[in-house]
Amino acid sequence: MRGFEQHINDFHQRNVAVAVISVDSPEESLKLIHSKSFTMPFLSDPKAEVIRSYGVLHPKGGEDGRDIARPAEFFVDSNGIVQWVNLTDDIRVRARPDVTLKAIDGLVAGK
Amino acid sequence: MQRRWNIHLWAGFAIVLLSVISYIPLFTLFPVTRDVPWVNYLLFIAGALLLFIGMKRAFGDPQHYRGKISGSILSVLSLLMIGVFCFGTLYASKQIPTSANAPHVGQPAPTFSLTGADGKQIALADLLKGNRGALLIFYRGYW
Predict the structure, then answer these.
(1) Domains of chain A with bracketed CATH
(2) Is the ipTM, as predicted for this complex, more than 0.90?
(3) pLDDT digits (tens, 9 = 90+) for B82-124
(4) Sign of dihedral through CA atoms B134, A72, B24, A67?
(5) Smallest Cα distance from A66 to chain B, Å
(6) Residues A33, B96: C-beta atoms closer than 8 Å
(7) Do B94 and A50 make contact, defined as CB atoms within 8 angstroms?
(8) Half-sphere exposure of B27 toward its Cβ, with a 13 Å CA cutoff?
(9) Across the interface, do A41 and B117 touch by the CB < 8 Å criterion?
C-alpha cells in the first residue's frame, strides 16, 4: 500500500481513484494514516460484508480467528464493471503499482 | 596449549540471526527482496557455510579449536531459524483462500458504502464519479 501511496499521482493523473478496504475500524485506520502519512481513503468494513460480496473473505485469517480480507486488487471502470483483478496466492506478494498502472493503461488503449 | 576461539561458528550464527530478524523491517519494504526473499536465502547459505567450517574445525581439530558444544547449539538454533523462515515464506504465507467467487473481468462490481477514517461515508459511486475508474485494494488490516 505504501507503494500505491507513492504512486498516487500517477493514478490521479489517469483519473483513477484509489481506495483501500479492510476490517479495521476508522480509528485504527486513522492511526495508520497518521503514522505513514497516507492520503488514500481508508474504508472500514468491520463486519466484512463488502469483503464477502467481493468474494475475498479470509475466514478466521486474522488474529483471534477474526474474519478478514485476503489481499486483492480490483479495477472498476466508470460503468461499475470490473476490468482487472489481481488475486495473489501469497500474502507477502501484492500487486505492484507499476504493474497495475500498466494494466489500466492497457485496458484504456484496448478500448 | 590455548585453544583458539572458533569465530566461524559465531559469525555463521550471527548472519543467520540477522537474516531472519531483518526480513520484515528491511527486506519487505522492497518488492524485489520481498516477493522472493533471495537476499535472506543467500545469507542463510553464507551462514551455514561458516557454521560448517567452524564445526569441521571444532570436531576435526579439537586441539586447536573450541566450539564442540557451543557450535552444536549454534548450528541447531540456526537450522531451526532457517526452517521457520522457509516454512513461513514457502508455505504459511500461501495459506489463503482461492476466492473463486470474486467478480471476474466483465462482471459488475458489487456496490457499497463504507465509513472512511474521517467518519464520512464513501460509496463506490463516489469513487467513480468524474473518474475513469477506481482501484479497490483489499488488505488484511493492521488490527
Answers:
(1) 2-110 (3.40.30.10)
(2) yes
(3) 999 999 999 999 999 999 999 999 999 999 999 999 999 999 9
(4) positive
(5) 10
(6) no
(7) no
(8) 21
(9) yes
